[in-house]
Design brief:
Layout (H helix, E strand, L loop, with lengths): L13 E5 L7 E7 L2 E12 L12 E8 L14 H14 L11 E11 L4 H15 L9 E8 L2 E4 L3 H4 L5 E8 L4 E5 L7 H39 L1
Parallel strand pairs: 4-5
Antiparallel strand pairs: 1-2, 2-3, 3-5, 6-7, 6-8, 8-9
Length: 234
């Protein structure tokens, strides 16, 4: 058994909701265990500065940040090297899902804030951002789901906690996946892992992302079912 009592293929409890930021064009909250990500999408809109404008496709900008109070030891406010790197990781994980040529000469901004952290923040951020893009009505090939898999005490497990990440010899592998398209959009490896274990980890990631995908879709459907109910009442 793992430190928190889960099975190797068992994720922590997941909650998802869209439409959480009133002023955003699209928004979402994604919670997995004690990690909470909130994403807001603004656009498509004119490109600023204009010289970055692409006549053939959209310009996607992503901004990732962790609130100072999201971790036990207070984080210094504002962007740092890690947040800049993860902003790029999130952007690259989302781009394959967007019909970029549908929005030439336009810009879409994605802001993701981690309000509480217990490992897996980049994966939670990707899952939240993908939902927020869909909520904003952005044309997409698929919704991106993300989860971390890894090797802990020679066992392949999904959705690592901070406690598991800190175990000596642990290997962490954040993965993003488009279940309908059956394509990976992110694959990172922090540490070493035998080839056979990588194959097992990828299969576990796919199965887990498919479960996350169903939760993401349900959150989107629930919002619009509620809107329809409210319209019928009026």
């Amino acid at each position: 058994m793992r430190p928190d009592g889960r099975k190797n293929d068992e994720m922590r409890k997941i909650e998802a909701k869209v439409g959480v930021i009133e002023k955003a064009d699209g928004s979402a909250m994604f919670k997995i265990g004690n990690t909470i990500a909130i994403a807001g999408v603004y656009g498509p809109k004119p490109v600023r500065p204009k010289h970055l404008e692409d006549p053939e496709k959209v310009l996607l900008k992503c901004y990732y940040d962790m609130y100072s109070f999201s971790v036990p030891e207070r984080k210094r406010p504002g962007p740092d090297r890690r947040s800049i790197e993860l902003s790029m990781v999130i952007k690259n994980a989302l781009l394959p899902a967007i019909f970029v040529k549908e929005y030439p000469k336009s810009q879409i901004d994605v802001f993701v804030s981690i309000v509480q952290a217990d490992a897996g923040t980049r994966c939670a951020a990707i899952s939240a951002a993908a939902m927020a893009l869909a909520d904003a009505g952005i044309a997409m090939k698929d919704i991106v789901a993300a989860v971390a898999v890894g090797r802990v005490n020679n066992e392949i497990v999904v959705d690592l906690t901070k406690e598991e990440e800190d175990i000596e010899g642990t290997t962490d592998m954040p993965i993003a996946y488009m279940p309908r398209m059956k394509k990976f959009t992110l694959l990172q490896l922090d540490g070493k892992m035998p080839a056979d274990d990588i194959k097992k980890a990828l299969e576990l990631a796919k199965t887990s992302c498919e479960k996350i995908y169903e939760i993401q879709k349900k959150a989107l459907k629930d919002k619009y079912l509620k809107m329809r109910e409210n319209e019928n009442k009026d």
